């Protein structure tokens, strides 16, 4: 009997959201948060964080990156766009894909910090942005530094030499660091970060609208595949379609409808994919963020065959909408949230036989079981709302303000 790769102990979902109390105006520290951009799914989370920490100020490197089709929308958040040099580079992963990405060098961070002297600095990623925050932490010993990481062991595989040394040095300078899952935590532990300094901060999507969708799907929709995201090699759509076509060829009496929402350099190639007659591909193009709920309501099973994703917030959204997930464990969201046969089906995308067997399980699951899986998916993701994410950050802020006093073991285990 086929078994998926055993998942390690999951750590991002707790029974109840963090209970730290909001900080009053008088008690609120001056907290500066530095990040490259504000993705639409972060807006609700950041608004909740500012309710808890009134002294929060947010600094972004750029309003939006050129390879994103999101519109900059910050609501009433206190956001400042930094002076920044941005350039395009390439991410070469040992899975074989090469992806164009954007790097940002916000060169006014250190002068700004010295001038404003915040109590706590939260800096995302492990690059030049955080280097300046670490220098400020050294110059002003009473300040505190939290590094907000988004990574997993899989996404970071292949980094060696000076990059590892650089990361170790930055992490030694911080008072706390966030991990978005068990894999991210294991990576940080491998770089020498003490366990008591690591806080879980999984991606928290704005899922309220998705939770209001009906769970029931008509038979014609129940097995309709849906994908939302960039059409790039890293997302693994071409290998998945190849295996799906093979499965349909061996099951000539079966049909599959696959809706693909998004755009990117591979769209033309995917549109020309030699699909068998039973496979009906529908390319929807880019869908506005505020329209995603309507799209999820028309899907039956969410497909996420990524070759490397440190999380994958679309998994949160799909599960909240009641879609079981047919996904790659090279997404930390799938690894953490999808339980085989209960909320979806998992595979390693570089093993075609695993894709095939996961597909077979999804395509042969009875309607009644799919209905139960929709309910289980929604319940699994319900806690990962923006309020929970803000509470996780507040815990880290309170921890570093208490001079890094060790957390009780029971709290570390619950995290």
Write up this protein.
The chain has two domains: 31-204 and 385-414, Rossmann fold (3-Layer(aba) Sandwich), CATH 3.40.50.2000; 208-381, 3-Layer(aba) Sandwich (Rossmann fold). It has helices at residues 43-52, 109-116, 128-139, 162-172, 182-190, 208-211, 219-222, 237-250, 267-271, 292-296, 313-320, 332-337, 352-364, 367-381, 386-401, 409-414; strands at residues 31-35, 56-60, 79-81, 84-92, 98-106, 120-124, 144-148, 176-179, 198-200, 225-228, 256-261, 279-285, 301-304, 325-328, 344-347. The two termini are 34 Å apart. The chain has 415 residues and is α/β, with parallel strands linked by helices. The model is unreliable at 1-10 (pLDDT under 50). The protein contains 16 helices and 15 strands. The chain is globular and about 70 Å long.
Give the oligomeric state. single chain
- Sheet with the most strands: spatial strand order: 3-2-1-6-7-8-9
Major sheet description: 7 strands, parallel
- Percentage beta strand: 15-25%
| Estimated helix fraction | 25-40%
| Mean of residue pLDDT values | 91
Tell the overall outline: globular
- According to CATH, the fold-level topology of the largest domain is Rossmann fold
Task: List the uncertain runs.
Answer: 1-10
- CA radius of gyration is 22 Å
Structural class: alpha/beta
Distance between the termini: 34 Å
The CATH class of the largest domain is: Alpha Beta
């Amino acid at each position: 009997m086929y078994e998926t790769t055993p998942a390690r102990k999951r750590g991002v979902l707790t029974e109840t959201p963090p209970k730290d109390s909001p900080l009053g105006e008088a008690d609120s520290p001056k907290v500066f948060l530095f990040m490259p951009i504000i993705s639409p799914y972060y807006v609700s989370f950041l608004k909740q964080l500012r309710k808890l920490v009134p002294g929060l100020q947010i600094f972004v490197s750029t309003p939006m990156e050129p390879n994103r089709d999101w519109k900059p929308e910050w609501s009433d958040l206190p956001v400042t766009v930094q002076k920044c040099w941005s350039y395009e580079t390439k991410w070469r992963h040992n899975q074989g894909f090469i992806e164009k990405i954007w790097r940002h060098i916000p060169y006014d961070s250190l002068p700004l910090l010295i001038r404003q002297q915040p109590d706590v600095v939260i800096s995302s990623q492990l690059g030049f942005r955080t280097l300046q925050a670490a220098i400020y932490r050294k110059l002003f010993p009473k300040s505190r530094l939290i590094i907000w990481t988004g990574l997993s062991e899989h996404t970071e595989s292949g980094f060696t030499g000076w990059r590892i040394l650089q990361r170790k040095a930055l992490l030694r300078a911080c008072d706390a660091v966030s991990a978005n899952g068990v894999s991210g935590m294991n990576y940080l532990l491998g770089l020498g970060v003490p366990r008591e300094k690591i806080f879980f901060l999984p991606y928290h999507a704005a899922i309220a609208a998705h939770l209001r969708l009906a769970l029931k799907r008509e038979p014609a929709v129940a097995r309709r595949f849906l994908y939302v995201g960039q059409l790039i090699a890293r997302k693994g759509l071409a290998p998945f379609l190849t295996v799906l076509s093979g499965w349909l060829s061996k099951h000539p009496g079966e049909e599959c409808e696959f809706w693909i929402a998004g755009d990117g350099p591979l769209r033309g190639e995917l549109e020309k994919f030699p699909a068998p007659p039973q496979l009906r591909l529908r390319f929807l193009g880019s869908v506005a963020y505020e329209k995603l709920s309507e799209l999820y309501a028309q899907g039956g099973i969410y497909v996420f065959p990524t070759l490397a994703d440190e999380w994958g917030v679309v998994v949160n959204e799909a599960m909240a909408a009641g879609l079981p997930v047919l996904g790659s464990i090279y997404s930390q969201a799938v690894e953490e949230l999808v339980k085989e046969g209960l909320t979806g089906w998992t595979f390693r995308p570089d093993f075609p036989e695993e894709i095939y067997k996961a597909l077979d399980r999804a395509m042969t699951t009875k309607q009644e079981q799919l209905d139960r899986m929709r309910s289980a998916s929604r319940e699994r993701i319900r806690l990962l709302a923006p309020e929970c994410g803000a509470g996780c950050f507040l815990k880290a802020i309170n921890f570093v303000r208490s001079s890094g006093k060790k957390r009780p073991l029971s709290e570390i285990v619950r995290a």
